[in-house]
Design goal:
Layout: H1 2-26, H2 30-56, H3 60-89, H4 102-107
Helix pairs in contact: 1-2, 2-3
Length: 108
């Protein structure tokens, strides 16, 4: 049973990673690309690691997979926020079709 659920999580993770890679190619500016890549990492890679944990169980490899999931969930959104904020402060323009700019509102 664990193997079937593990395969499901592996498939979901691969699907999220594939969609995230498409977003990196298709989206117009750095802010949208960061959004796509962080969703790819947090959902895709974490699902793959969860599937690995279901295969390995509470072995050293499975525990390392759980620790990697915790590390990814804590650091990936923070790093995306830091990258987008520093890009905005250094003057990288938003895409012309962007609707709102909350960082510019915070400056005023």
């Amino acid at each position: 049973m664990n193997e079937i659920i593990g395969y499901i999580f592996l498939g979901l993770g691969l699907l999220f990673d594939f969609i995230g890679c498409l977003g990196l190619i298709r989206f117009p500016d750095i802010y949208n690309r960061l959004h796509s890549s962080i969703k790819c990492v947090t959902l895709g890679t974490s699902s793959i690691l969860l599937g690995l944990f279901l295969f390995k169980g509470f072995t050293p490899g499975g525990i390392k997979a759980l620790l990697c999931i915790a590390f990814l969930l804590l650091t990936a959104p923070v790093s995306a926020h830091v990258l987008s904020r520093s890009a905005h402060k250094s003057g990288v323009k938003l895409w012309k079709g962007s609707v709102c700019d909350k960082y510019a509102e915070d400056k005023n």
